């Protein structure tokens, strides 16, 4: 059957089968869903493949009107926004609800984190979660805390937020830097002088080009080779390596400073203190109005994030000081103890030289290094 070539209106889209359909047809043609519900009511088991097909159809039909056709709302983007918003409202009702929310939110994150690692798939869920947390907390500060503080404090916090956000986005979209590294290490021998990005699409994969990068590792999740690979980070949906490690580390450091300063200002805004000490504050009245309760919950949520980032920062500082990457440590620790890995690591040139090598790398390419 010929496909209708006419343009789509704002409420139309093409489904998984390429057929033209309308947003109002969301609940139409649901035979598979009806059969699955009937089997559940009869006590019969529904196959995983059928459940997967149903979820794919439902997710394909969740769209919003847009120019030249309705746009699909990806679960990875939407779920964190809805989940965090509902959890914040739930936690702001009382201390008991706050404790429950601060327990089930990390547990939910941990379970989904383990699931993603086991599935070895890329997802924007954690990126959406992080951006929602950063932007949401900053909006709460501007709306409910900044009016009670000096312009200098608000300016410092805004500057820190801007730096963290820009560095974080730089890490996420650092994929193009790998092409630059690949070109400097092994330029393509093409007769055409006018090259474009598609000419270099395979240069950054060590499986295709015999390892153009030093201390490289091929990431099976991202599908490309990473120079001086440290680890695959689900929170950035990309690998951390020499092309973005500086931005990654700087974002963590600035986030810790900005987060601690924001928590300090927020606590003293919504709570009372007799001697201006953070250890002698009275926050018993924070649940009397929504403004202070929202800020109070956001502070504790930020503290949980800060504790996690402190552990990550400590690990990164130790590895950089020893000129050791996370991937190298994980491979070596399977056969050696921690102390033995630290003692026998071949790239360790001393604390000062290791940091100089990290901050000012001299060479990014080597064809003689082993690629794993």
From TrEMBL:
<keyword id="KW-0564">Palmitate</keyword>
<protein>
    <recommendedName>
        <fullName>Palmitoyltransferase</fullName>
        <ecNumber>2.3.1.225</ecNumber>
    </recommendedName>
</protein>
<keyword id="KW-0012">Acyltransferase</keyword>
<keyword id="KW-0333">Golgi apparatus</keyword>
<keyword id="KW-0472">Membrane</keyword>
<keyword id="KW-0812">Transmembrane</keyword>
<feature type="transmembrane region" description="Helical">
    <location>
        <begin position="124"/>
        <end position="144"/>
    </location>
</feature>
<dbReference type="InterPro" id="IPR001594">
    <property type="entry name" value="Palmitoyltrfase_DHHC"/>
</dbReference>
<feature type="domain" description="Palmitoyltransferase DHHC">
    <location>
        <begin position="205"/>
        <end position="330"/>
    </location>
</feature>
<keyword id="KW-1133">Transmembrane helix</keyword>
<feature type="transmembrane region" description="Helical">
    <location>
        <begin position="294"/>
        <end position="314"/>
    </location>
</feature>
<feature type="transmembrane region" description="Helical">
    <location>
        <begin position="73"/>
        <end position="91"/>
    </location>
</feature>
<dbReference type="GO" id="GO:0019706">
    <property type="term" value="F:protein-cysteine S-palmitoyltransferase activity"/>
</dbReference>
<feature type="transmembrane region" description="Helical">
    <location>
        <begin position="97"/>
        <end position="117"/>
    </location>
</feature>
<keyword id="KW-0808">Transferase</keyword>
<dbReference type="GO" id="GO:0005794">
    <property type="term" value="C:Golgi apparatus"/>
</dbReference>
<feature type="transmembrane region" description="Helical">
    <location>
        <begin position="156"/>
        <end position="173"/>
    </location>
</feature>
<dbReference type="Pfam" id="PF01529">
    <property type="entry name" value="DHHC"/>
</dbReference>
<dbReference type="GO" id="GO:0005783">
    <property type="term" value="C:endoplasmic reticulum"/>
</dbReference>
<dbReference type="InterPro" id="IPR039859">
    <property type="entry name" value="PFA4/ZDH16/20/ERF2-like"/>
</dbReference>
<keyword id="KW-0449">Lipoprotein</keyword>
<feature type="transmembrane region" description="Helical">
    <location>
        <begin position="248"/>
        <end position="270"/>
    </location>
</feature>
<dbReference type="GO" id="GO:0006612">
    <property type="term" value="P:protein targeting to membrane"/>
</dbReference>
<comment type="similarity">
    <text>Belongs to the DHHC palmitoyltransferase family.</text>
</comment>
